[in-house]
Amino acid sequence: MKIIGTGRSHPSLVVTNDMLSQILDTSDEWITTRTGIKERRVISTENLEDLSIDAAKKALADANMDAKDLDYIICANVVNEYICPAMSCIIQGAIGATCPCFDLNGACVGFIYALEIAESFYRSGKYKNILVVCAEEPSRMVNWHDRTASVLFGDGAGAVVLTEGDNIKATKMSASCNWDRLYQKHELQYSPFNKKPNSNLPLVMHGQDVFKFATRAAIKDISHVMKETGYQPDEIKHYLIHQANLRIINNIKEYLNQPDEKFPLNIQKYGNTSSASLPILLDETNKEGRLQRGDLIVMSAFGSGFVSGACILEW
Ligand code: UT7
């Protein structure tokens, strides 16, 4: 497949590090030096589905495609207002599409999962035009009284439209179960038969373990797709890395021995927007005119699971 349109949507509220220092025992200096984040967008008055629909419409307009021509919609999402129906179904109705759809929870790696699934769908011969929307609201998951995780995340949505092409050169997905390093449990409705204690608790994160995993996994996945395709690091024009921590991105950059300008960044503005991170970054890089036809792009993401993934595509 190939990507022919991109879009993104952000909540209106900008929450700066200084604003967080007012409610948490933290500082702009700590957050900036340890993560690279200066501010993030957080949902206040809007709903996540509004952002998802907006990003989807922008990607369709960019692709010059009518929603009626879509053959599938995949939405990557960890949490939203609805347990059911799937967010993809809400998007389908709002944009006027008639195709089937489903949601996937690939944590921060949802976008690369979706690309790999879209490519497999296309290869099956049944589907040609696929909309991928990554929509995330981690501000609903973190404990806003706990400085360790709450300062890292932001909300947002990113979308791409894919159609037939030979531009996805390789994908590599990995999973190694370490669920207790980054997780959140939630309680649904009361059941008279359920004897377990209430587990409705905010996100739990062991930051240093996640950091080490992320760096190792990204290097391993990127090396895998490079080896599979035979491309050398110098041949890659853009490295789009999940915007979780600037220090993780710098470690990957050092390993690959590649210059700063190949690593677009927006972590300073949006923080970690989970699976929306990569399509938001791709849309920004695209709309800034930095992508030329034929450019090789590596994407890499990692997250709760642990899961990780990388891909190489030609623009
Ligand atoms: O998509 C994947 C999602 N998650 C991630 O990518 C997270 C990966 N991990 C990280 O990004 C980093 O581990 C963090 C940014 C979470 C933490 O950075 P760190 O350099 O690993 O710090 P640390 O956990 O070792 O904590 C150092 C100190 C501690 O104080 P003491 O024990 O040295 O006195 C923490 O309590 O920093 C303290 N600390 C803070 N101080 C001010 C932790 N969070 C904060 C904070 N503000 N927000």
The bound ligands are:
oxa(dethia)-CoA
**Biggest sheet: strands side by side, in what order?**
1-7-6-4-5
Mean model confidence by pLDDT: 96
SSE succession: EEHHEHEHEHEHEEEEHEHHHEE
Give the strand content.
Answer: 15-25%
Count of DSSP helices?
10
Distance between the termini: 11 Å
So what's the overall shape?
Answer: globular
Topology:
Elements (H helix, E strand, L loop, with lengths): L1 E8 L3 E4 H7 L4 H8 L3 E4 L5 H16 L8 E5 L10 H9 L5 E4 L5 H14 L6 E7 L10 H4 L5 E8 L4 E8 L6 E2 L20 E2 L1 H23 L8 E4 L4 H11 L10 H4 L6 H11 L8 E8 L3 E8 L1
Parallel strand pairs: 4-5, 4-6, 11-12
Antiparallel strand pairs: 1-7, 2-3, 6-7, 8-13, 9-10, 12-13
Helix pairs in contact: 3-4, 7-8
Bound molecules: oxa(dethia)-CoA.
Summarize the structure.
A 5-stranded mixed β-sheet has the order 1-7-6-4-5, with helices on both faces.
From the structure above, extract its key features.
315 residues, alpha/beta, four-stranded mixed β-sheet
Explain the overall architecture.
The protein is α/β, with parallel strands linked by helices and 315 residues long. Helix content is 34%, strand content 23%. It contains 10 helices and 13 strands. The protein has helices at 17-23, 28-35, 48-63, 87-95, 110-123, 147-150, 207-229, 246-256, 267-270, 277-287, and strands at residues 2-9, 13-16, 39-42, 72-76, 101-104, 130-136, 156-163, 168-175, 182-183, 204-205, 238-241, 296-303, 307-314. The strands form 4 sheets. It has a 5-stranded mixed beta sheet with strand order 1-7-6-4-5, with helices on both faces. The chain has a 4-stranded mixed beta sheet with strand order 8-13-12-11, with helices on both faces. Helix 4 (87-95) links the parallel strand 4 and strand 5. The longest helix has 23 residues, at 207-229. The radius of gyration is 19 Å and the shape is globular. The N and C termini lie close together (11 Å). 47% of the residues are buried. The model has no long low-confidence stretch (mean pLDDT 96). Bound molecules: oxa(dethia)-CoA (UT7). Oxa(dethia)-CoA (UT7) binds next to helix 2, helix 6 and helix 7.
